[in-house]
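Task card 7
Instruction: Convert sequence to structure tokens.
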Amino acid sequence: MNELPQQLVNGLLLGSMYGLVAVGYTMVYGIVQLINFAHGEIFMTGGFGALTVWLILPGGTSMWVALPVMIIGAVVVATTIAVGAERFAYRPLRGGPRLAPLITAIGLSLALQYAVWVWYPEAKSARTFPQIPGGPIELGPVTIQTGDVFLLIAAPICMAVLAFFVMRTRVGRGMQATAQDPDTAKLMGVNTDRIIVIAFALGAAMAAVGAVAYGLKYGVVDYKMGFLLGLKAFTAAVLG
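Output:
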């Protein structure tokens, strides 16, 4: 029984990370009926985007200063790739055979993996990710690593902001309308193409935050990290 509180916290941490990635699968499928199997790799590019920002920053930069900039870098990289994928890979196939977007997603997944492999030759092995300074936090029988604190704070905030955006804003209501009936949404003046792009961008942004959390938790990123985690997040999206 002494292990139970620690295991509950570990499960909460992993579930939070999977949730940040899973929401991208759910949003895209709910609106455009597409299983974006490249989403795990978009998560991975967010991690390398954050790492790139860290390497560009001057040496000796405090992690507390660098972390917000790294998050922004991760979000920019991931959302740019996701929006580009929607515009140039998925949109031309909309309305075509259902198998075509699936094959495209798998191909895009492999392309992103090896694009990062070429961009970061050292990514053949795991790249060290910068860490938040400080030792583990002891809360009775529970030990929380400093890297996990970011995840515990970021995941609820991201989910709350996303829920507010979807439920309380005009664009969010447009997303709900498009998910329920895209043809009727068009007749009501909703720009469904714009809504789909926003769904891809929001999912990628959440995944990018998850990628930063992954790097802080495990201390490394690598070009294959999106495959297994994306598979687990997809399972969570389906079961959830």
